[in-house]
Amino acid sequence: MNIAITSLNSAVERLLAVEANRPGSVHRLTRSETLAGGKGVNVARVLAQLAAGGHGTSTPVPAPRLLDFSGGPTGRLFEDLLGAEGLDSALVPTAGGTRVCEVLVDLSDPAGATVYNASGPQVTEPELDALESTFGHVLENSDALVCTGSIPPGVPSDQYARWITQARDRGVLSVLDAHGEVLARGAAALPDVVKVNREELLSLGPGDPGARALEWLDSGIRCVIVTDGGGPARAYTAGVAYEVRAPEVPVRSAVGSGDAFCAGLVRSLLGAPEAGWAAHLRLAAACGASNAAGVTAGLTETHSPAALLSRVTVSESALRPARRSDTRTDGTRG
């Protein structure tokens, strides 16, 4: 079995690090790497690292499998980069080339990395048909579905929503991390978990993010998690609200920390389903902090989740219950 990760706009990612970024100047790079990138790849990478052991999470869980597009010379490079990391994938060919994105890390201000994201290739109807067929095969062999990241031109905004509905019909755990219309329509399909950052939530329009989270909770979503950069994350479940404070680490790049949080959450939900939301959130926050301590997306050995876990603070407060009677607070299905 697998953890299906649908992330339809992954990229070849160029990581550039400089001692200090001075616009209009010539810089000498202190580090330069080419990696498979995108939110889904980041989630898969952390899940694979957790599965490999050494991070205090020895309970076995299914391996991640990435469902994505791949096209052109950059697509071939993307596939090679995935293979070099041992990341399993089911890739649908596209005529358009896989996008290339850049991440500029200013080591004098690592929390403020600059990210340049391309839009992605135009996807055609035959390519969408092939995607649907591939998704059906992947979902049949999956214990969880993670829908994350942006979508390229030509992919309908309800793509994740329809897949979440299929996952629910099969009893497969589903997690959504998106933005804009894709987030709104995906949340309306009632995934088990919505994990967003505050900026993504505000992209849906003015209003209190906490109130919108409660609306989603009342509609039937089991847990809504709102991360806020270096600030505490807030999670809402039936009857309980959580404030999650990650431990302080020497930040080298915050890029990918939200994805590492998502991976840790899924890892805990599948590996220890009866542990309860506080435990799930604790591992998620430890993974997010571990990611921030490295320049590239992924867990760091010097600040591993196992070492950080005891330093995560999770506090609870009462919350009015959601309306649905089958919602539990331990992450399992009712």
* Cα end-to-end separation: 22 Å
Spans where pLDDT lies below 50 across 5 or more residues: 322-334
Query: Widest sheet: strand order?
Result: 5-4-1-8-9-10-11-12-13-14
Report the CATH C-level class.
Answer: Alpha Beta
Number of domains: 1
Radius of gyration: 19 Å
Shape field: globular
Mean pLDDT: 91
Task: Describe the fold and architecture.
With 334 residues, the chain is α/β, with parallel strands linked by helices. It has a single domain, classed as UDP-N-acetylmuramoyl-L-alanine:D-glutamate ligase (3-Layer(aba) Sandwich). It has 10 helices and 14 strands. The protein has helices at residues 39-51, 72-85, 125-140, 159-169, 180-188, 198-202, 209-219, 257-271, 277-292, 305-308, and strands at residues 2-6, 11-18, 31-37, 63-71, 88-94, 99-106, 114-116, 142-148, 173-177, 193-197, 223-228, 231-237, 240-245, 313-318. It has a 10-stranded mixed beta sheet with strand order 5-4-1-8-9-10-11-12-13-14, with helices on both faces. The protein has a 4-stranded mixed beta sheet with strand order 3-2-6-7. The two termini are 22 Å apart. 48% of the residues are buried.
Provide the fold topology:
Elements: E1 2-6, E2 11-18, E3 31-37, H1 39-51, E4 63-71, H2 72-85, E5 88-94, E6 99-106, E7 114-116, H3 125-140, E8 142-148, H4 159-169, E9 173-177, H5 180-188, E10 193-197, H6 198-202, H7 209-219, E11 223-228, E12 231-237, E13 240-245, H8 257-271, H9 277-292, H10 305-308, E14 313-318
Helix pairs in contact: 1-8, 4-5, 8-9
